[in-house]
Amino acid sequence: MTRVICLASGKGGVGKTTLASNLALALNDFNKRVLIIDTNLTTPNLGFHMGIPLYPKTFHDLLRGEAYPEEATYIHPSGVNIMPAGISLSDLKKTDPKNMDNVILDLVGDHDIILLDGAAGLGNEGLAGIKAADEVLIVTNPELPAVTDALKTVKIAEEMGTHILGVALNKHRNQPSELSISEVEALMGYPVISIIPEEKFMQESLAAKTPLVSYRPNINTSHEIKKLAGNLIGVDYQPPVQARASGLFSKIFSFLK
Ligand SMILES: Nc1ncnc2c1ncn2[C@@H]1O[C@H](COP(=O)(O)OP(=O)(O)OP(=O)(O)O)[C@@H](O)[C@H]1O
Ligand SMILES: [Mg+2]
Question: How confident is the model at residue 118 (pLDDT cuts 50, 70, 90)?
Answer without folding.
Answer: very high
